[in-house]
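Good morning,

Attaching, inline, the backbone tokens for the sequence recovery test we're adding to the shared suite. The designed sequence is right after.
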């Protein structure tokens, strides 16, 4: 049954000087954003490791592959969680990055950066909206699978409003497991279905890692937003940019593994800080990113100007 709604403690607000300091480090530079689960908490999706995170035991890749019971538990929780997870919408932090035109490397699987309008996104850990067959490789949508799961399990009822469930960042919910839950097979070959996301204990595909490194190498700075950088899939990019002599800026409510490497650390909410940075960079006519700016950033520049506010060559 659904848990009672939980309200996380308000995140600290950034000071004006902190916002200006972030904007000052990014102004005039080509930069890329690396985002984690802390950026999506304002969309009703909790994180694993933030100060308000509750203890949880996410699915392990090896367990999912080897044990039918583990797959049953995952898909039962996922069917319930998707009713909330699928309703999540971009928050002001996602929108600010999209408005600034910043390329994004995200550890999140919710697809909210693209939904907010960001066009240069590396979904490092995959997307919850895709489902892959482990036997034939067929890719289908999570919505289509949801319809099949609902039809096969009419006994699993109830609706969990976004933000009310004990949702997890990989799209399932912390609820009791129905023992009679039916796991549907691949519609093409009858094989085993898995969400097209990187589980704990699973390797990130090499092509995504290479694409992320390419973005970092083409940038002059890296902004980390909402990630504790606990796992190496994100931490390696922070270490890489610092080793290259480029500034690392971190916005996170809580400690990270790269705090000692950062040129600047802001201990505050990501949405509040990023919207402030957007406003500050708008005032100084300095949008960000490696592509043409969009939204407010695009309107800051007259025709014929490049993304740093100087005439395009």
């Amino acid at each position: 049954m659904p848990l009672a709604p939980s309200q996380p403690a308000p995140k600290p607000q950034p000071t004006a000087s902190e916002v200006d300091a972030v904007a000052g480090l990014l102004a005039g530079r080509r930069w890329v954003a690396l985002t984690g689960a802390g950026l999506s908490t304002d969309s009703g999706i909790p994180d694993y490791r933030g100060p308000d995170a509750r203890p949880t035991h996410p699915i392990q890749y090896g367990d999912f592959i080897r044990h039918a019971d583990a797959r049953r538990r995952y898909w039962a929780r996922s069917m319930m969680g998707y009713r909330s997870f699928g309703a999540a919408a971009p928050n002001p932090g996602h929108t600010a990055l999209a408005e600034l035109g910043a390329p994004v490397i995200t550890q999140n699987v919710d697809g909210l950066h693209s939904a907010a309008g960001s066009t240069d996104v590396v979904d490092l850990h995959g997307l919850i909206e895709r489902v892959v067959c482990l036997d034939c490789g067929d890719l289908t949508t999570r919505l289509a699978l949801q319809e099949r799961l609902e039809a096969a399990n009419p006994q699993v009822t109830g609706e969990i409003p976004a933000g009310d469930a004990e949702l997890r960042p990989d799209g399932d919910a912390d609820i009791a497991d129905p023992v009679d839950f039916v796991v549907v097979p691949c519609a093409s070959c009858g094989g085993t279905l898995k969400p097209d996301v990187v589980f704990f204990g699973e390797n990130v595909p090499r092509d995504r890692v290479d694409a992320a490194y390419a973005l970092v190498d083409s940038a002059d700075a890296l902004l980390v937003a909402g990630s504790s950088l606990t796992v190496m899939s994100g931490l390696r990019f922070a270490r890489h940019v610092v080793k290259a002599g480029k500034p690392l800026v971190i916005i996170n409510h809580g400690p990270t593994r790269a705090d000692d490497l950062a040129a600047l650390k802001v201990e505050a909410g990501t949405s509040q800080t990023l919207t402030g940075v957007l406003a500050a960079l708008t005032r100084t006519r300095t949008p960000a990113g490696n592509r043409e700016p969009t939204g407010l950033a695009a309107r800051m520049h007259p025709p014929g100007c490049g993304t740093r506010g100087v005439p395009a060559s």
